[in-house]
UniProtKB/TrEMBL annotation:
Pfam families tied to this protein: Isochorismatase
Originating species: Janibacter limosus
Lineage per the UniProt record: Bacteria, Bacillati, Actinomycetota, Actinomycetes, Micrococcales
The protein, known as: Isochorismatase family protein
Domain Isochorismatase-like residue range list: 5-165
GO molecular-function term, one example from the UniProt record: hydrolase activity
Record's keyword terms, sorted: Hydrolase
SUPFAM superfamilies given in the database record: Isochorismatase-like hydrolases
């Protein structure tokens, strides 16, 4: 796994702040394992993503932002800033997208078309699973560091991990310690 990329998905205030409608109660607990992974991978093999609302409200995005109007703000709103520990995790800046899944041109430009990705971040049951499935479909090997992910709830986190585990061997769900031991 020495050629793997650590992808820390959306370590942003909107998902970390307990006062946010999308704040994960698991975010603080996931930070320690994420930091350990980041130390093991280094800034050159770590990619940090950010979800931004953008301006597209076509199709299902219109009703989505009606339902979640608190997040319908300009991309520059501090709500979308990285949490302070995440600043500097990557030497490559951030990959910013306005979709749940982060797999696409921004990531493949950095990782290549069929890389090994280690996923961590928020939320397990939204942006992590939405990244893992299309990456696996595209031929990437995906490793989800379960303890380095934060779900919207413990139950939703467990459900998303269970679903991703069904895709073995393309998607493997392991602990951050197992990832580091394999490096």
């Amino acid at each position: 796994m020495s050629d793997a990329w650590l992808v820390v998905i959306d370590p942003q205030r909107i998902f970390a702040d307990s006062g946010s409608e999308w704040g994960s109660p698991m975010f603080d607990a996931a930070l320690g394992p994420i930091k350990s992974l980041r130390s093991g991978f280094g800034a050159d093999r770590t990619i940090v993503t950010r979800w931004l609302p953008g301006t597209d409200r076509d199709g299902s995005w219109g009703p989505y932002f009606e339902r979640w109007s608190f997040a319908d703000k300009p991309d520059t709103d501090p709500l979308f800033d990285l949490v302070s520990p995440a600043n500097g995790w990557s030497s490559r800046g951030t990959v910013d997208v306005s979709t749940f899944g982060k797999w696409g041109p921004g990531l493949t430009r950095l990782t290549g078309e069929a890389p090994t990705l280690v996923l961590a971040g928020a939320a397990t049951d939204c942006c992590v699973i939405s990244t893992a499935l299309p990456a696996a479909d595209a031929g990437a090997t995906v490793v989800v560091a379960a303890d380095a992910c934060a779900g919207s709830s413990e139950d939703n986190h467990a459900a998303a991990l269970q679903v991703m585990g069904l895709y073995a061997p393309q998607i493997e769900v392991v602990s951050s310690a197992e990832v580091l031991a394999a490096r």
